[in-house]
Amino acid sequence: MKRLGIGIIGSGGIAQACHMPGYASIPDKCEMLAVADIDPGTAQRAAEKFGVKSVFCDYRELLAMPEIDAVSIATPNAFHLQPALDAFAAGKHVLLEKPMAMNAEECKKIVRAQKASGRLLQIGLNWRFSGAGRFMKQFIENGRMGEIYYARAMALRRRGVPGWGVFIDKEKQGGGPLIDIGVHILDFVLFLMGHPKPVSASAQAYQKMGANPKYWNAWGDYDRSKFTVEDFAVGLIKFENGATVTLESSFMANLEKEIFGCHLFGTESGASLDLFAPDPITIFTENDRQLFDMVPRNIPKVKSMHEDEVVAFVETILSGGESLVPGEQGLVLNAVFDAMYKSAETGREQPIDVTY
Ligand SMILES: NC(=O)c1ccc[n+]([C@@H]2O[C@H](COP(=O)([O-])OP(=O)(O)OC[C@H]3O[C@@H](n4cnc5c(N)ncnc54)[C@H](O)[C@@H]3O)[C@@H](O)[C@H]2O)c1
């Protein structure tokens, strides 16, 4: 079988921790041929760590290599659009980190370019590959939850501001915790709910703590004057099928317990998911007029959901299958965030447009 030639665009944190180990774990299916990063030291270090021969500062040189079939794009959010458009123009398949782009307009351009190229696009929404995600999806598809008509999605950190890189810079990120970690949990919930179509959102975003040096940060200190994003956001999203989702996300907030998870309300059962907990799922149901709380104890063990997403990307290209995380679903998330940020600015519920 032909091995895929892989290129890495943006070889910083997530590329070295997740994408490159993922490709390296399947040497029979692919080979990393080149790394590109605007920071030459970062590119060099990543290439040496994984034994990659070609190193570039300009990703367009990587895209010009005919032996490269597919690329990971793991640059900051403001630099997702252009490399993605250029990659499709060069005929490459793309694994694009989350959030798909800065806003829905950019996502639409990427989806159109992908359709025109006929190449595969997978968005880096790795929680779908978690053991909890796999179990819950099956449980729901088996009808055990009934109709899920409401969910609470929560990505709440008490003192978890990522002060490194560009995560607190609105110009380069597009937003704060909503777009950075809210994106993961909203995707997870929509995946479990079967991707209902969102129609409107109302929201509020606050910057109450992140820019103020009086608050301690568990993830190290950072330049508070550079904090230009919200530190907490909350919203209500309505769907065409009548379902609703509330989404809360914070980098910094005075709360009892950090949570990355969701509560699902179905007609047959409910579920509470705390995705970093050892037993992440509790199901609430009724049998014979008795209420039961059930904890599934042997959900699939996944060594690394990040590596599994990379393996899935390569295997989907090789098998010619459909993307497991298509661009249209990445677009939905950005369109929801656009509506939420606009609602926070205007004080009014906003429509969500997912056409492209
Ligand atoms: N899926 C996840 O759990 C997860 C976790 C962390 C980050 N991410 C996403 O991955 C992306 C990168 O985040 P990170 O934490 O790795 O950041 P990072 O700052 O560690 O790495 C980004 C790298 O991109 C390089 N870069 C910037 N502009 C470039 C350009 N035009 N061409 C080539 N290289 C360029 C930078 O020099 C840097 O080395 C972001 O979109 C982020 O949201 C996803």
Characterise the protein shown here.
It is a single chain. Helices cover 33% and strands 25% of the residues. The chain has 356 residues and is α/β, with parallel strands linked by helices. The chain has two domains: 4-127 and 306-325, Rossmann fold (3-Layer(aba) Sandwich), CATH 3.40.50; 130-302 and 334-351, Dihydrodipicolinate Reductase, domain 2 (2-Layer Sandwich), CATH 3.30.360.10. The strands form two sheets. The chain has a nine-stranded mixed β-sheet with strand order 14-13-12-11-7-10-9-8-15. A six-stranded parallel β-sheet has the order 3-2-1-4-5-6, with helices on both faces. Helix 1 (13-24) packs across helix 9, helix 5 packs antiparallel against helix 10 (327-346) and helix 8 (177-192) packs across helix 10 (327-346). The protein is globular, with a radius of gyration of 20 Å. The two termini are 36 Å apart. The mean pLDDT is 97.
Overall geometry: globular
Main sheet, how many strands, which sense, barrel? 9 strands, mixed
Number of domain units? 2
How many beta-strand elements?
A: 15
Radius of gyration: 20 Å
Mean pLDDT: 97
CATH architecture of the largest domain: 2-Layer Sandwich
Q: Spell out the CATH superfamily of the largest domain.
A: Dihydrodipicolinate Reductase, domain 2
* Strand order, sheet with most strands: 14-13-12-11-7-10-9-8-15
Relative strand content = 25-35%
CATH topology of the largest domain: Dihydrodipicolinate Reductase, domain 2
Number of helices: 10
